[in-house]
């Protein structure tokens, strides 16, 4: 028989068996000798692989692609203060919370909510949401792949205007004779115009997206060049996750480290461009009138969700493959801190480039030099690279390779979350079979995003299928774990698992601060809702119908599973069934039966001790610690 002390799955990073450590400090009797260990769950080869995978997941397109244009749309530097506050009060506490619950139970994002049968809808809703995210993330990777291939051309195809683009085009790259003379130029303007448009922007809209003015008559047919990129992107994801965390863990070293090397090079280059300092000042200088704007705070919350991937199920899934005593407190601190630094690094880089663009065009309004949205990373960066006088192709290849790696790293986590959700419920399905099926089906769905109306669909899915669902399910997750399951029990679980107490900061955030702030954000969003637009173009009614259907499918998982849980729960009356549906199941706890037996005894002893606590004593113990 394998004891917890002998099983490496329950040895912490310091080499101490957590089960043995807790047993030495417990008054409970040792577990029965006839207890059998649970079926082994796949685990990370090394603890560092988990950390690198979390970095590759959290540090991705959300930092380089989404953060700069979110900041741009919300007043530049004014966005930083709400973002950092939200990170401290929402992002970091949820990140640590999900790491604890995933590692403690060794269950994926769906099965973990078996702790409260009535709340399984949270897991199913998150699985649906993260799958939608995965489908459009790979479409972005397809566009990145297209740029990567085009980067080998000399000159870069977006560097100069083409006759068919009209008279308002301005070259992103200065004429060759000016490069040879090493003189600055704002480029060439053909004819008279009220607004000049860079060749980089026109290349993205006319050649890459082939974008339509609206989708009233449909979204059009897929761009075959982007279809190839979409296929290659999904092929990469499939090959990396084909063996689960054993293969993705090995790839995480490259996926986590390589982007930082390229990002540092690009930042240094951006700082050497004229006007870049003005852009960075615009980025860090707060507009105090924006600080109190609820829209900015709502944008900070959604950006925090995207950047850290909290409330998507990815963190729970990754941590479920950890050894039981792994120090997730350390990893949560590292990842959240590094994620913030990366967002700032990306912001400095792109706002430095925006400052240079404003300098070239001759305007002081940095916020007006380029439109926001997904196009920012495909317009501003390429525009700056086109201005490089020495080997711009090398910088372009490296930049888009970095973006491709970031996108793949993030989508590996999202696709793995879907795979884990399926295999946890259907264990007979093999890893490669599940991964292949998801990749093929997702590729077919992704074809909609590489059509002339694809960016309309991407924005629609992002809004209705990600932002709204993530906020509602995230709030439900916090109330279930913090109030129904209980902050005190969460802290006991963490102490039992890692041998360290949980401080008041975490207790207050989990019990009060985080769920109430998110609830206020949701109330504000619902009270100020306006129909979604893309580039100031409204959607047809059928598109809004699809969007609300997506939202309802994700959110309605909550009441549906409350009813199902109540029906399945034991009890002689509906009120008793409903109460039992919100209680943890008898098999909830550590996966290993030896540890679970010991854990259940400690919980029983704790329940007896709590019986004599008054109201203030309960609050003092559960929240103040």
TrEMBL record:
The keyword Iron does not apply. It is found in: Membrane. Keywords: Amino-acid transport, Glycoprotein, Ion transport, Membrane, Sodium, Sodium transport, Symport, Transmembrane, Transmembrane helix, Transport. Residues 1-39 are annotated as: Disordered. Its main location: membrane. Residues 20-39 have a biased composition (Basic and acidic residues). The gene is LOC101887417. Unusual broad substrate spectrum amino acid:sodium cotransporter that promotes absorption of the D isomers of essential amino acids. Neutral amino acids are the preferred substrates, especially methionine and phenylalanine. InterPro entries: Na/ntran_symport, SNS_sf. It comes from Musca domestica (House fly). The keyword Transport applies. PANTHER family: SODIUM-DEPENDENT NUTRIENT AMINO ACID TRANSPORTER 1-RELATED, SODIUM/CHLORIDE DEPENDENT TRANSPORTER. Pfam families: SNF. This is Transporter. Belongs to the sodium:neurotransmitter symporter (SNF) (TC 2.A.22) family. It is a multi-pass membrane protein. The chain crosses the membrane at residues 47-65, 77-97, 128-149, 226-245, 257-284, 296-320, 332-354, 397-422, 434-451, 463-485, 505-526, 546-567.
